[in-house]
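thoughts on both lines:
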Amino acid sequence: MAGTKLMDVIVPELFNPYVMNKSMELSALVQSGIVANNSEFDKLASQAAPIINMPFFEDLTGESEQIIENVDLEDNKITSNKDMACVIRRAKMWSATDLSAALAGTDPMGAIACLAANFWARDTQKELIAILKGIFGTVEDVDTGTKETRLLSNLLDISGETGDAANWSVNSFIDAQQLLGDAQGQLTAVVMHSATWSYLKKKNFSDVERQSVDVSFDTYQGKRVIVDDGCPVENGVYTTYLFGQGAIALGNGSPVGFVATETDRDKQKGSGVDYLINRKTYILHPRGISFTNANVDKKEGPSRLELADAKNWKPVYEPKQIRVVAFKHKIG
């Protein structure tokens, strides 16, 4: 395929949907059930506005009433609230030198699309880790000096304990699940640092097993394990995250006028350099935790650093309805 140029093999209308679908297929987050995608989320992500309103009805509370002849029942209202998500806009450009091996393949567009899909699957996982840092972060009031962890209800921190009590144990992991009370059965997956996973395997815990059906996942206490070194580590304190099915909403957007894939060529550089530009606009939203947009510099949407800023997040669901738990611990 000597002399082949990117513009000869890339068909944007075919390339971008393939990359999008392949990215989800390769994503451990999607395959584990942590991240859920549907057409409704895709529509929301396709809106032009950087902030999306997601209204919802509050759960019904109180107790039933006894039926008494000729006595009116008390009138109870259903209340509503508003969840808000941000649209994430990202782009990446590659040159032909990065893609030259793929151009030599029998299906160059497919090969390049697979490379791009692998990149976006990894990149999306990094975005989620940044979001998790934000929703469990601490906000400080500069005037009063007071600090607030807005999702403290879903955070267990044993790192300040003495000796082995600060280390991960089966009991402490169960305690972390207990933060959701009778809703803990919703927790189905766990994301941890590779050092934490290695620690568990060294300890030879009997409940650390490889799933026979899907060799790409290990399990711990019956929960799928995803290993990501983006999980926070600070002064020997590791943060592990537990998730329920569909805890994170994923919407792949295609706004009007949005160009997802383009090729370009610089004719003046030597024999010429080809470029492939791939863009994404999507939502990756923890259900029940509103994006406040309190500290975002650009009108187009938040950077990854801003997603990790606790000022930009505020819970709007009841704690049990938020299917994410953070577990801070040491590993000996």
